[in-house]
What does this fold into?
Amino acid sequence: MLFRDKDYTQRALKRMEVMQREMKKKHFRTHCLKRLKKASGRGSYKKDKVVVQRLYRLIVQSQAQRIMLYLPLKTEVDLYPLIRQLRKEKRELYVPFMEGKSFRVVKYRYPLEKKRFGIKEPKDSRQYRNKKLDIAIIPIVGLDITYRRVGFGKGMYDRFFEKEIKNINKTVFVARELCYSREIVTNNHDVKADILVTPQNIIHF
It folds into this structure.
């Protein structure tokens, strides 16, 4: 009986720890979204231009040919100038195509159409054949001390990376403004960065 009580107490403490962390993450996300909204007003074009230039140099230096990007929301770095340049260079570009609670990756091609959460996707949803990606460029809402991502809370990137991380050579986080937590607010399943690119810095972890 004593051992059972001890096990029950440990499980209860673990559940409480998880709940507290989730609450911290929720508050942190709300704080970061407010900052990103503010950073997405005047001056956002210049910030995005700096990030795009840094991303392009990183892609060239890495000799990356197969690149996963995203189609931006208003609070995210605008990657369309980068996409146009990479298409001219005939690099293979891929973007998320939402399916249920996760997504699969499809080739970037026209036409695009607006889907759930206001996110644009290629209308042609045929999945790409080559599983390997040289670089995955991912938008973040925030980052904690473990270099793991806080996103919008849907868990789509987490589910995708859980299956595909072995096929992704380098993961790059981007943000118009870095919102950083000095304490752990993420979980082990949250996506972790190799590189962070913001208007102020490029950081290799």
User: Anything to note?
Assistant: The first helix runs from residue 2 to 39. Residues 140 and 151 are 5 Å apart (CA to CA). The first strand starts at residue 66 and ends at 68. Helices lie at 2-39, 44-62, 80-88, 156-164.
